[in-house]
Amino acid sequence: MGRVMDVPFLPLKRQYEQHKNEYDAALLSVMESGQYILGERTAAFEKEFGEYIGGMCVGVSSGLSALEIAFRALNIGEGDEVIVAANAYIACVMGITRAGATPVLVEPNAYFNIDVREARKAVTDKTRAILAVHLYGQPCDMTGLKQLCAEYGIYLVEDCAQSHGATFNGKQTGSFGDVSCFSFYPTKNLGGFGDGGAIVTDERTAQWIRTYRNYGSEKKYYNSMIGDNARLDELQSALLSVKLKYLKEINNGKEHIAKRYLDGIKNGKITLPRVFGNVLSVWHQFVVLTDDRDGLAEYMKARGIDTAVHYPIPPHKSGAYSYLGGSYPITERYAKTCLSLPCFCHTDDEIDYVIDMINGY
Ligand SMILES: *Cc1c(COP(=O)(O)O)cnc(C)c1O
Q1: N or C, which terminus of the chain has less Cβ within 10 Å?
Q2: Which stretches within 186-292 are classed as H helix?
Q3: Is the pTM value of this prediction over 0.90?
Q4: CA atoms within 13 A on the CB side of 157
Q5: Residue nearest to atom 2 of ligand 1 (CA)
């Protein structure tokens, strides 16, 4: 099999080039405005994104900051437990521990998301919240999680870092939780050109977060609490306002690729991702399972196709969180067998090539 095409995993620059003139104009307008922090571009983006998700939006410096601040805003900290899927991204667990709280890991279901029955079993009298991570762009079972949280009087926090625009029963992810967190890291569906994040919540909580992210200052030089410097800057805000206009286009493009993969990949050694009922996934990652994952990755690489692994080491197996201990066989199996295929700004020719190669594996 000769090498016939190079397929990069994340050709980020293509997205810029598609609307280059608009990004360049937005960038220059900020440079020329002389206003770089907490000006009108951030206010405008917060308004647009809040309306899009359905809540009050506060821009912050990253997805990790959003998570930490979300728990702090709910007064969740030392001695409190937060339930999260064991196969989530490490930043999810880090957001919990940075707020001082204790993560309680539970196994995921067949959709890579938190298993509601496992979450129920993990509730104790210390549980204060469930963190619903919509992994790979597919919404969690929000009916089950809402009900569980209501039953025990605990908070529902959403991590929508991979799910901008995804819906559950027609409702946006980020509109279910008491507090919802977003990341605008460049590779996310709504990605900026640097670090950035946002929180979507109710007006009262949003007001607390606006103060906290800016040194605990509601009014210049009056600091009512020990806060943080965790602001979204004007440049990212202006660029994100442009990209938000094209989020639907970006998500449609990913869905188009995912459909091609779902229809085209026919190989007994490969397990395709399953889609939960009543959800619209935004396919942040297209993740297949296969026993000889590293072998498949090498086979693809030899044919010019870049793949990635999300994620090879689950948090409880990392140096940072090995103290949590525990055994999570489903999570560990996913970590050993998962492989992410190119699913970004790829052409039909590139995707057809990936399908042909994977079918020949
Ligand atoms: C990317 C990501 C984060 C962290 O966002 P940063 O902006 O990189 O800090 C948190 N949770 C999930 C699920 C993510 O994918």
Answers
A1: N
A2: 203-212, 234-245, 247-264
A3: yes
A4: 31
A5: 161
